[in-house]
Amino acid sequence: MVTSMNKYNNFGLKYKTARKEKGISQEEASKNVTSRARLSRWERGEVTMPFELVLQLLKNINMSYADFMRDDSEKESHFLARVQDLYIDNKTAELKEWAKDLLAQYHQNTNHREILKKAAIIANFYLDLTNENLLAISDAREIELQLEKIETWYDNDIIYFGNVQLLLNPISVYHLSRNINSSIYDRKNEVNIEYVFNALINAACVLIKSKLVRQAQEVVKISRKLELLGYHLLESYRLKYVEGLLAYAQTKEDKKLQTLFSKLAVLPSFDQLLSDFKFGFSQIKEIYAI
């Protein structure tokens, strides 16, 4: 008889997600702990699992109980914060070592797609600082394929896309941006619109760097329609910045950008944002000088 779902049964589904992310089969995970059939039923929420067996099952997938219980969004936020801190501090050696270590783990077992995702995010930030791409062409294509398969986009997908775009083919970035817009058109209450906006602004910057100005303009137009800017100062500055980049790409005039830089210069709380903008603009000037 199937039991009713409760928070304990939901642990099975959470375990299944962690197991699959690590590329471990049910046979391997259940070895010397329980039967594969019972593990399968637990992962479907049909039965409970004694606590002592849960600990052994976690051991079989090399995961601590603390990590298992930690909220997924909390873990993701901690990971992204660490990457961003290394990026801000220009610690390229640490970013490179971290990314290469994760890539080595992934290449040992290409079912570990979650490891590839983390490696890609780190490599994306590293690429922005050094112009060195750590990913093989096959790895980048695998990322594109996974993103192209998404039909209904949610927050984690959008955050991921927003942080790996430099590694992707620019035309793919453009089409994926449009896919996100189509996916959320009637579901804006199901996603964080800030995540969508920032992913689109990142995409526009990538397209400008690739000299795909018309496509960048289309993506910026989509971002304006999200009805976000009246309440979000940071996002409004990011929009002004990308609009300034577009103006420069078309006319080589930087008046809009210099006006924005002057405004941010007297706002101490936006020191890092100003630094990021100036760094990005220096890259654009080099690209369009060619």
UniProtKB/TrEMBL annotation:
InterPro entries: Cro/C1-type_HTH (IPR001387), HTH-type_regulator_Rgg (IPR053163), Lambda_DNA-bd_dom_sf (IPR010982), Transcription_activator_Rgg_C (IPR010057). It comes from the Bacteria. Gene3D superfamilies: lambda repressor-like DNA-binding domains. PROSITE patterns: HTH_CROC1 (PS50943). Pfam families: HTH_3, Rgg_C. Residues 16-68 form the HTH cro/C1-type domain. This is HTH cro/C1-type domain-containing protein.
